[in-house]
Design a protein that fits this description.
pyridoxal phosphate binding, pyridoxal phosphate, 10 helices, 23% strand, 2 domains, eight-stranded mixed sheet, TIM Barrel, single chain, Lyase, Ornithine Decarboxylase, Chain A, domain 1, elongated, binds pyridoxal-5'-phosphate, alpha/beta
Amino acid sequence: MGLIIDLSAIRANWKALADMAPTARPGAVVKADAYGLGAVRVAPALYQAGARDFFVALASEGRAIRPHLPQDARIFVLSGHMEGEDLAGLIPLLNSPAQFFRDRALRPRGPFGIQLDSGMNRLGFEPGEWAAVRTEALAAAPQLVMSHLACADEPDHPANAAQLDAFRTMTTGVTAPLSLAATGGTLLGADFHFDLVRLGVGMYGGLPFAKAQPVVTLGLKVIQTRDVQPGESVGYGYSWTASRPSRVATVAAGYADGLARALARGGDLTLWAGDRACPVIGRISMDLITVDVTDLPDIPPALEILNAHQGVDALAERSGTIGYEILTSLGQRYPRTYL
Ligand SMILES: *Cc1c(COP(=O)(O)O)cnc(C)c1O
């Protein structure tokens, strides 16, 4: 019942991806509270498995996990050095000339990395900006020089080769460790691995790592069941009406718990009682979902929405999104169990 997070599966996925890039250090991306699964639990579990390089989006996320990791763990901050930020114990990935000069003025001996833009046009030094500060930046010995791929989940996309080429051009002669690949880039092959890979969604059981072990099980507690007669309706807007004598279970989760209203729009969303599929009926409310359990011999204490039958990507597809968004939306209201 509740959200069950299998830390050993996260470790196994991290290791499986690390083994695909044997020449690179396998980093672990734990931004957005480890994709919603709890960075304070996930990061130490990955440290135990051997991870030493962690990535967060914000300095505040880095400060939250710093006390939970030994000193030899490096925590890189992808947003770099934002004005007024406390970066003690963290390594900002500087994204622009402004960040570079701010950082060097305020923490001249502080460790830093560099993020280059190889084509995604989201974060990082543009080639011209990099050319202007490159000599000075490299003389200060960055811990990492990295860039990020925009289309790595589409192996045939021409941007992959173009970004690889741009990254190679911008890093010619650079002796600092280099990094280009996240999960998708790791799967693209050795050309993309460089010195460090930044493993994210694949560790958490999501595509594009199709061979990932599932990490999350989510069981929703049954609060109440009732009999509904033919012609009676269920939920907001009366959008479902019984056509036979029915038994309806109401479970304790809704769109405020990351189960988007759009998941039920196709009318064929299912929850699971073990191996038996039970149709969701009516609309998803903020805190509640209603399920047709007429065909179940007994009503279990909880019905599952994420399990071996329906993973994060299968669920995501129903609402037109991606597994990343399902994970990061799960929210704080579920009782959590870590395996
Ligand atoms: C989120 C992110 C990653 C991890 O990406 P996944 O696709 O989850 O593996 C790596 N690097 C950067 C810069 C990111 O923003």
